[in-house]
UniProtKB/TrEMBL annotation:
Function: Essential for recycling GMP and indirectly, cGMP.
Protein known as: Guanylate kinase
One GO cellular component term: cytosol
Gene behind this protein: gmk
Reaction catalyzed: GMP + ATP = GDP + ADP
Matching SMART domains: GuKc (SM00072)
Organism: Tetzosporium hominis
């Protein structure tokens, strides 16, 4: 039986905007029907992060081997570390008719746009630059140098938001989640093309 391919959902935006927080909130409810693609990274695990849950933590050599073997849908070198999306997991899950959710930075999202133009691109925007900075500082997981580098990157990343299908402001986590779920539901309605099935039925083709 023909099975509709899942939708590749790409949530992107600057560091500290709340992508991880929004993603965890989305996945904490049983109604959420997406599969989260766990990324590979060469970054060191933060306190409490678990290999195979938060990321697959890799050495630089291991990561470069994955690149050479073509096993990543996309990857980026972001503020001194590699981050990438496993290709087979994404393809197998989409082929099984399940939606896949990527939470990635902006360079990577651009590469996905080239390789999978039918993906759904959502940019998570902060209420303001100063709020972005205070979220990044308040998280307390990076050194001052890294925070400054991420803020510098954020200015360039924010300039890319009009390349996305949708921009969702993360003023409140629950509100942002509701909007993302609504966008995905609408995208399913669009792709199901119910009206074409009706037209075929009315013509007697089905
Ligand atoms: N809507 C919100 N209002 C206030 N604080 C928020 C909101 N969303 C997230 N935060 C806080 O902002 C900080 C950064 O959030 P988070 O780690 O989810 O960002 P991120 O975009 O995933 O960052 P990175 O790209 O660096 O992984 C966290 O301390 C989080 O609790
Ligand atoms: N291009 C990709 N970016 C990714 C991927 N997984 C995570 N990320 C993004 O990297 C930055 C930094 O993450 P952090 O965990 O060190 O704070 C952040 O914007 C993530 O969304 C990926 O597979 N590809």
């Amino acid at each position: 039986m023909y099975k509709e391919r899942g939708i590749l959902i790409v949530l992107s935006g600057p560091s500290g905007v709340g992508k991880g927080t929004v993603r965890k909130e989305l996945f904490s409810t049983p109604e959420t029907n997406y599969e989260y693609s766990i990324s590979m990274t060469t970054r060191k695990a933060r306190e409490g992060e678990v290999d195979g849950v938060d990321y697959f933590f890799k050495s630089k050599e291991e990561f470069e081997q994955l690149i050479e073997q073509g096993r990543l849908l996309e990857y980026a070198n972001y503020v001194g570390n590699y981050y990438g999306t496993p290709l087979d997991y994404v393809n197998d899950t989409l082929d099984a008719g399940r939606d896949v959710f990527l939470e990635i930075e902006v360079q990577g999202a651009r590469l996905v746009r080239e390789k999978a133009p039918d993906a759904l691109f959502i940019f998570l925007a902060p209420p303001s630059l100063s709020e972005l900075e205070s979220r990044l500082v308040g998280r307390g997981t990076e050194t001052d140098d890294v925070i400054q580098a991420r803020i510098a990157a954020a200015r360039e990343e924010l300039a890319m938001m009009d390349l996305y299908d949708y921009v969702v402001e993360n003023d409140q986590v629950e509100r942002a989640c509701d909007k993302i779920n609504a966008i995905v539901t609408a995208e399913h309605c669009k792709r199901e093309r119910v009206e074409q099935r009706y037209k075929a039925m009315l013509k007697g083709d089905l």
